[in-house]
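Working notes for the structural subgroup meeting. M.R. asked for a predicted model of this chain before we commit to crystallization trials. I am recording the input and output together here so anyone reviewing the notebook later can reproduce the run.

Input as submitted:
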Amino acid sequence: MERVVIIGCPGSGKSTLGRALGEQLNLPVVHLDRLWWTKGWQNVSREEFDTRLENALNLDQWIIEGNYSRTLEARLQRCDTVIYLDYSRWVCLWGFFQRLLTRKGTARPDLPEGCPEKLEWDFVKYIWNFNKNNKVLNDTQIAKAKHARAIVLKNRKETRAFLESLK
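Returned structure, recorded in token form:
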């Protein structure tokens, strides 16, 4: 594993898995949210995001975590492994609300400073509908990336076991 893509519903633990995997494999971790957002939840232009992503993709090794479905195909074309956290909506909502409570208005490590955790009902709705709106696309894109090893993890227990298996 030298070029790893991690996708999954918000709240599933993509960033946490990315950091843990990065430590175990000694690979740099790229958080797509850091490429997209700037202070105060302002986003960069699509062009700037695409340039930042292209720079990351051109590195020899990486773990890139995040969804941003518009760019999924480009990431999958260059990865050797894709990890899909295919968790239930309830697990992801629980993860989001836990994160919301523990961060209490501070920025996560996978976001730029000045982007504090906040509750937005549109985002909760996005999590609730994530699998309904994205699962077929994700499954289809992963199936097309025949060169890459696909790892689908269905719950946190499987994810912990996967990390343990790498030690």
